[in-house]
Structure to design on (214 residues):
């Protein structure tokens, strides 16, 4: 019998072995197979200045001066007290998320020649704008009527400085349309309030609808 303990000496070194495995996942969306599942949305607005605002006539025009509003020939022959009207409609494109529109104050239209020394006519004109999700006729009787479908006056002031008082909501994927009616007026007291003669002048205001996704 040996005292104290036992020593095993086989003359070899033992190693431990194991089965291994790995699993991977990637940023894909449910049901998309091998397609990417992380990305960004799209936000795009389009406009139409041609009544009756057919779908085919909506376009994107993102630089000044944009499309021309149709105020009519009378807009070039205003006398004190006269007003002219022009419509425009805006909506999102078919693959766009929702957003909001804000009408900014008028600026000079890029590349359009005018005759308005000292910006006298520019300073004299006033602007009113109405907005509605429901299409409406853009004329004097409609905007003055109490029976017109809900329209909201969003601009009322000097053409040179006044923008929209509130934003208008656009639904995603062309689900709604915002209709606008612009009214430009040469006030009846315009000549008496100006040291310069306003006759024979022209201006070309351009308006930006700034749009933000929501």
């Amino acid at each position: 019998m040996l005292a104290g303990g036992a020593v095993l000496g086989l003359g070899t070194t033992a190693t431990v072995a194991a089965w291994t495995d790995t699993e991977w996942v990637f940023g894909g969306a449910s049901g998309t197979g091998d397609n990417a599942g992380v990305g960004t949305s799209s936000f795009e607005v389009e406009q139409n200045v041609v009544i009756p605002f057919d779908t085919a006539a909506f376009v994107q025009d993102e630089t000044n001066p944009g499309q021309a509003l149709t105020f009519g020939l009378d807009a070039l022959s205003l006398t004190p007290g006269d007003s002219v009207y022009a419509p425009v409609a805006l909506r999102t494109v078919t693959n766009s998320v929702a957003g909001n529109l804000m009408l900014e104050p008028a600026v000079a239209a890029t590349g359009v020649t005018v005759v308005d020394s000292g910006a006298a006519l520019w300073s004299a004109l006033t602007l009113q704008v109405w907005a509605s999700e429901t299409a409406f006729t853009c004329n004097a009787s409609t905007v003055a009527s109490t029976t017109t479908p809900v329209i909201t006056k969003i601009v009322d002031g000097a053409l040179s400085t006044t923008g929209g008082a509130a934003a208008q909501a656009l639904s995603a994927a062309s689900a709604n349309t915002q209709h606008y009616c612009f009214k430009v007026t040469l006030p009846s007291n315009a000549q008496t309030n100006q040291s310069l003669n306003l006759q024979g002048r022209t201006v070309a205001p351009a308006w930006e609808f700034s749009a933000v996704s929501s």
Summary: The chain has a mean pLDDT of 90.
